[in-house]
Specification:
Layout lengths: L7 E4 L2 E5 H10 L8 H7 L6 H16 L3 H17 L17
Antiparallel strand pairs: 1-2
Helix pairs in contact: 1-4, 3-4
């Protein structure tokens, strides 16, 4: 069996998420919801903009995740990686106006 944790999805060459994380998130999303379009594009290996992905995960991603702790943790992990790799391109605050750099 192939180790999916070793397959990275990158933005401009910077690893942002493993395929295993993306698949876990998609699995955790309830059947009546859908992952955000930008999330799906990242999963497919398409290029996405860091700030757009961050905002999409922070809004649509949270709604789709519902009450799934695993999906919400994956969102936070990806947001931390985006913030570390692209500090000038992701918002300093989340959708609620809280400091997103924590």
């Amino acid at each position: 069996m192939r180790d999916l944790s070793a397959i990275d999805r990158t933005i401009r060459g910077t690893p942002i998420a493993t395929l295993a994380e993306l698949q876990t998130y998609a699995y955790e999303v309830p059947e009546d919801k859908a992952p955000p379009a930008l999330f799906s594009r990242l999963t497919a290996g398409e290029e996405v903009e860091p700030g757009e992905l961050f905002t999409s995960l922070d809004t649509e991603g949270r709604v789709a995740a519902g009450d799934s702790d695993a999906a919400l943790e994956i969102i936070e992990t990806i947001k931390r990686r985006l913030r570390a790799a692209f500090p000038d391109e992701v918002p300093d605050t989340d959708v609620w106006g809280l400091d997103s750099r924590r």
